[in-house]
Specification:
This protein is mainly alpha-helical and 267 residues long. Helix content is 83%, strand content 0%.
Length: 267
Protein backbone atom coordinates (compact mmCIF):
# COMPACT_ATOMS: atom_id res chain seq x y z
CA UNK A 1 0.00 0.00 0.00
CA UNK A 2 2.97 2.32 0.50
CA UNK A 3 3.61 2.26 -3.24
CA UNK A 4 0.11 3.60 -3.85
CA UNK A 5 0.93 6.68 -1.80
CA UNK A 6 4.34 6.97 -3.44
CA UNK A 7 2.76 6.91 -6.90
CA UNK A 8 0.35 9.69 -5.97
CA UNK A 9 3.29 11.53 -4.44
CA UNK A 10 5.06 11.58 -7.80
CA UNK A 11 1.92 12.94 -9.44
CA UNK A 12 1.79 15.73 -6.88
CA UNK A 13 5.52 16.47 -7.13
CA UNK A 14 5.20 16.80 -10.90
CA UNK A 15 2.46 19.40 -10.54
CA UNK A 16 4.57 21.29 -8.00
CA UNK A 17 7.53 21.20 -10.38
CA UNK A 18 5.67 22.89 -13.25
CA UNK A 19 4.09 25.35 -10.81
CA UNK A 20 7.62 26.47 -10.00
CA UNK A 21 8.61 26.59 -13.68
CA UNK A 22 5.81 28.67 -15.20
CA UNK A 23 7.31 28.92 -18.69
CA UNK A 24 7.21 25.15 -19.13
CA UNK A 25 3.65 25.01 -17.86
CA UNK A 26 2.49 27.69 -20.30
CA UNK A 27 3.96 26.04 -23.39
CA UNK A 28 2.61 22.67 -22.25
CA UNK A 29 -0.99 23.82 -22.53
CA UNK A 30 -0.95 24.21 -26.32
CA UNK A 31 -0.78 20.52 -27.40
CA UNK A 32 -3.45 19.60 -24.87
CA UNK A 33 -5.81 22.35 -26.06
CA UNK A 34 -5.59 21.19 -29.68
CA UNK A 35 -6.25 17.57 -28.70
CA UNK A 36 -9.08 18.55 -26.33
CA UNK A 37 -11.03 20.28 -29.12
CA UNK A 38 -10.82 17.14 -31.28
CA UNK A 39 -11.85 14.79 -28.48
CA UNK A 40 -14.69 16.98 -27.26
CA UNK A 41 -16.25 16.89 -30.72
CA UNK A 42 -15.92 13.10 -30.86
CA UNK A 43 -17.48 12.56 -27.42
CA UNK A 44 -20.35 14.94 -28.16
CA UNK A 45 -21.07 12.96 -31.32
CA UNK A 46 -20.99 9.71 -29.34
CA UNK A 47 -23.34 11.18 -26.71
CA UNK A 48 -25.97 12.07 -29.31
CA UNK A 49 -25.56 8.93 -31.38
CA UNK A 50 -25.28 6.25 -28.69
CA UNK A 51 -29.07 5.81 -28.29
CA UNK A 52 -29.59 5.25 -32.00
CA UNK A 53 -26.68 2.83 -32.16
CA UNK A 54 -27.92 0.65 -29.28
CA UNK A 55 -31.43 0.62 -30.77
CA UNK A 56 -30.01 -0.47 -34.13
CA UNK A 57 -27.80 -3.12 -32.50
CA UNK A 58 -30.63 -4.69 -30.45
CA UNK A 59 -33.62 -5.18 -32.79
CA UNK A 60 -34.61 -8.27 -30.79
CA UNK A 61 -35.65 -5.98 -27.92
CA UNK A 62 -38.19 -4.02 -29.99
CA UNK A 63 -41.08 -6.14 -28.75
CA UNK A 64 -40.09 -6.11 -25.09
CA UNK A 65 -42.53 -4.57 -22.67
CA UNK A 66 -41.85 -1.39 -20.75
CA UNK A 67 -39.78 -0.69 -18.69
CA UNK A 68 -37.45 -3.58 -19.62
CA UNK A 69 -36.56 -2.35 -23.08
CA UNK A 70 -35.70 1.09 -21.72
CA UNK A 71 -33.60 -0.32 -18.88
CA UNK A 72 -31.77 -2.73 -21.17
CA UNK A 73 -30.96 -0.20 -23.87
CA UNK A 74 -30.23 2.49 -21.33
CA UNK A 75 -27.64 0.23 -19.69
CA UNK A 76 -26.07 -0.54 -23.05
CA UNK A 77 -25.96 3.15 -23.92
CA UNK A 78 -24.24 3.93 -20.64
CA UNK A 79 -21.72 1.13 -21.22
CA UNK A 80 -21.04 2.35 -24.75
CA UNK A 81 -20.37 5.88 -23.57
CA UNK A 82 -18.22 4.54 -20.71
CA UNK A 83 -16.20 2.59 -23.28
CA UNK A 84 -15.77 5.79 -25.28
CA UNK A 85 -14.53 7.62 -22.18
CA UNK A 86 -12.24 4.71 -21.35
CA UNK A 87 -10.61 4.88 -24.78
CA UNK A 88 -10.56 8.68 -24.79
CA UNK A 89 -8.66 8.91 -21.50
CA UNK A 90 -5.83 6.69 -22.72
CA UNK A 91 -5.70 7.84 -26.33
CA UNK A 92 -5.86 11.50 -25.27
CA UNK A 93 -2.47 11.15 -23.63
CA UNK A 94 -0.97 9.31 -26.60
CA UNK A 95 -2.20 11.89 -29.11
CA UNK A 96 -1.22 14.85 -26.91
CA UNK A 97 2.28 13.44 -26.42
CA UNK A 98 2.67 13.02 -30.17
CA UNK A 99 1.43 16.53 -30.87
CA UNK A 100 3.72 17.97 -28.20
CA UNK A 101 6.65 15.59 -28.70
CA UNK A 102 9.45 18.21 -28.91
CA UNK A 103 8.17 20.15 -25.90
CA UNK A 104 7.58 17.16 -23.65
CA UNK A 105 11.00 15.72 -24.48
CA UNK A 106 12.60 19.03 -23.47
CA UNK A 107 10.45 19.25 -20.33
CA UNK A 108 11.46 15.74 -19.27
CA UNK A 109 15.13 16.54 -19.84
CA UNK A 110 14.78 19.71 -17.76
CA UNK A 111 13.24 17.74 -14.90
CA UNK A 112 16.18 15.32 -14.99
CA UNK A 113 18.58 18.25 -15.09
CA UNK A 114 17.06 19.92 -12.02
CA UNK A 115 17.27 16.65 -10.07
CA UNK A 116 21.00 16.37 -10.68
CA UNK A 117 23.03 13.53 -12.08
CA UNK A 118 23.01 12.29 -15.66
CA UNK A 119 20.50 13.64 -18.19
CA UNK A 120 19.91 10.71 -20.58
CA UNK A 121 19.46 11.37 -24.30
CA UNK A 122 18.28 8.88 -26.87
CA UNK A 123 20.84 9.99 -29.45
CA UNK A 124 18.24 9.50 -32.19
CA UNK A 125 16.93 12.06 -34.64
CA UNK A 126 13.64 13.85 -33.99
CA UNK A 127 11.84 11.88 -36.70
CA UNK A 128 13.19 8.57 -35.44
CA UNK A 129 12.03 9.40 -31.90
CA UNK A 130 8.64 10.44 -33.25
CA UNK A 131 8.31 7.20 -35.21
CA UNK A 132 9.17 5.07 -32.17
CA UNK A 133 6.70 7.01 -30.02
CA UNK A 134 3.91 6.61 -32.60
CA UNK A 135 4.65 2.91 -33.09
CA UNK A 136 4.69 2.18 -29.34
CA UNK A 137 1.54 4.27 -28.79
CA UNK A 138 -0.26 2.23 -31.45
CA UNK A 139 0.79 -0.99 -29.74
CA UNK A 140 -0.51 0.32 -26.43
CA UNK A 141 -3.79 1.42 -28.02
CA UNK A 142 -4.31 -2.06 -29.46
CA UNK A 143 -3.89 -3.51 -25.96
CA UNK A 144 -6.25 -0.92 -24.52
CA UNK A 145 -8.86 -1.63 -27.21
CA UNK A 146 -8.72 -5.36 -26.44
CA UNK A 147 -9.15 -4.70 -22.73
CA UNK A 148 -11.96 -2.28 -23.52
CA UNK A 149 -13.84 -4.84 -25.60
CA UNK A 150 -13.41 -7.46 -22.87
CA UNK A 151 -14.63 -5.09 -20.16
CA UNK A 152 -17.54 -4.00 -22.34
CA UNK A 153 -18.59 -7.64 -22.70
CA UNK A 154 -18.22 -8.25 -18.97
CA UNK A 155 -20.49 -5.26 -18.39
CA UNK A 156 -23.46 -7.41 -19.37
CA UNK A 157 -23.01 -9.58 -16.27
CA UNK A 158 -25.57 -8.47 -13.65
CA UNK A 159 -24.17 -6.68 -10.57
CA UNK A 160 -20.53 -7.43 -11.50
CA UNK A 161 -20.88 -5.42 -14.69
CA UNK A 162 -22.06 -2.35 -12.78
CA UNK A 163 -19.57 -2.60 -9.86
CA UNK A 164 -16.33 -4.50 -10.45
CA UNK A 165 -16.03 -3.79 -14.18
CA UNK A 166 -15.88 0.02 -13.87
CA UNK A 167 -13.21 -0.33 -11.16
CA UNK A 168 -11.17 -2.65 -13.38
CA UNK A 169 -11.63 -0.20 -16.23
CA UNK A 170 -10.12 2.65 -14.22
CA UNK A 171 -7.20 0.44 -13.14
CA UNK A 172 -6.47 -0.60 -16.73
CA UNK A 173 -6.75 3.02 -17.89
CA UNK A 174 -4.47 4.18 -15.07
CA UNK A 175 -1.82 1.56 -15.83
CA UNK A 176 -1.58 2.35 -19.52
CA UNK A 177 -1.84 6.09 -18.89
CA UNK A 178 1.20 5.80 -16.63
CA UNK A 179 3.00 3.82 -19.34
CA UNK A 180 2.38 6.51 -21.94
CA UNK A 181 3.66 9.24 -19.64
CA UNK A 182 6.74 7.44 -18.33
CA UNK A 183 7.61 6.47 -21.91
CA UNK A 184 8.84 10.03 -22.51
CA UNK A 185 11.63 9.59 -19.95
CA UNK A 186 12.19 5.86 -20.37
CA UNK A 187 12.52 6.06 -24.15
CA UNK A 188 15.31 8.61 -23.69
CA UNK A 189 17.03 5.97 -21.56
CA UNK A 190 16.86 3.46 -24.42
CA UNK A 191 14.25 1.26 -22.74
CA UNK A 192 11.97 -0.53 -25.19
CA UNK A 193 8.22 -0.99 -24.77
CA UNK A 194 8.42 -4.60 -23.54
CA UNK A 195 10.92 -3.67 -20.83
CA UNK A 196 8.91 -0.58 -19.89
CA UNK A 197 5.82 -2.70 -19.32
CA UNK A 198 7.91 -5.10 -17.24
CA UNK A 199 9.16 -2.25 -15.04
CA UNK A 200 5.63 -0.99 -14.45
CA UNK A 201 4.22 -4.45 -13.73
CA UNK A 202 7.03 -4.99 -11.24
CA UNK A 203 5.82 -1.89 -9.36
CA UNK A 204 2.12 -2.26 -10.12
CA UNK A 205 0.84 -0.42 -7.06
CA UNK A 206 3.23 2.48 -7.66
CA UNK A 207 1.99 2.65 -11.25
CA UNK A 208 -1.67 2.58 -10.24
CA UNK A 209 -1.09 5.15 -7.50
CA UNK A 210 0.18 7.49 -10.19
CA UNK A 211 -2.15 6.58 -13.07
CA UNK A 212 -5.58 5.97 -11.53
CA UNK A 213 -5.99 9.39 -9.82
CA UNK A 214 -4.82 11.00 -13.06
CA UNK A 215 -7.38 8.95 -15.02
CA UNK A 216 -10.17 10.13 -12.71
CA UNK A 217 -8.98 13.73 -12.99
CA UNK A 218 -8.88 13.48 -16.80
CA UNK A 219 -12.63 12.76 -16.80
CA UNK A 220 -13.26 16.36 -15.73
CA UNK A 221 -13.43 18.68 -18.76
CA UNK A 222 -10.29 20.77 -19.34
CA UNK A 223 -8.49 19.26 -16.36
CA UNK A 224 -6.38 16.98 -18.60
CA UNK A 225 -5.01 20.00 -20.46
CA UNK A 226 -3.81 21.71 -17.29
CA UNK A 227 -2.43 18.54 -15.70
CA UNK A 228 -0.47 17.23 -18.70
CA UNK A 229 2.77 19.23 -18.17
CA UNK A 230 2.88 18.25 -14.50
CA UNK A 231 1.96 14.66 -15.36
CA UNK A 232 4.99 14.42 -17.68
CA UNK A 233 7.20 15.95 -14.98
CA UNK A 234 5.88 13.55 -12.33
CA UNK A 235 6.27 10.57 -14.68
CA UNK A 236 9.89 11.57 -15.26
CA UNK A 237 10.50 11.62 -11.51
CA UNK A 238 8.87 8.20 -11.19
CA UNK A 239 10.93 6.87 -14.11
CA UNK A 240 14.06 7.90 -12.24
CA UNK A 241 13.04 5.62 -9.37
CA UNK A 242 12.11 2.75 -11.66
CA UNK A 243 15.52 2.81 -13.33
CA UNK A 244 17.62 3.67 -10.25
CA UNK A 245 19.92 1.27 -8.47
CA UNK A 246 18.12 -0.57 -5.62
CA UNK A 247 19.64 1.60 -2.88
CA UNK A 248 18.86 4.80 -4.80
CA UNK A 249 15.34 3.67 -5.64
CA UNK A 250 14.61 3.05 -1.95
CA UNK A 251 15.64 6.58 -1.07
CA UNK A 252 13.63 8.07 -3.93
CA UNK A 253 10.56 6.06 -2.98
CA UNK A 254 10.78 7.24 0.63
CA UNK A 255 11.01 10.83 -0.54
CA UNK A 256 7.94 10.46 -2.73
CA UNK A 257 5.96 8.90 0.12
CA UNK A 258 6.97 11.68 2.48
CA UNK A 259 5.80 14.27 -0.04
CA UNK A 260 2.40 12.60 -0.11
CA UNK A 261 1.96 12.59 3.68
CA UNK A 262 1.34 16.35 4.11
CA UNK A 263 -1.57 16.09 1.66
CA UNK A 264 -3.34 13.70 4.01
CA UNK A 265 -2.55 15.79 7.07
CA UNK A 266 -3.75 19.00 5.40
CA UNK A 267 -7.07 17.42 4.73
Amino acid sequence: MRDLGAGFGYLWKGQRWVAGHGRWFGFGLLPGLVTLVLYTGALVGLWYGADDFTAWATPFADDWSSPWVGLFRGSLTALLFALGLFLAVVTFTAVTLLVGQPFYESLSEEVDRTQGGEVPESGLSFWRDLWISARDSLRILVRVALYGILLFALGFIPVVGQTAVPVLGFCVSGFFLAEELTAVALQRRGIELKERLGLLRGRRMLTLGFGVPLTLAFLIPFVAVFLMPGAVAGATLMARELTARPEDAEGAGQGARQSAVPLTLDK
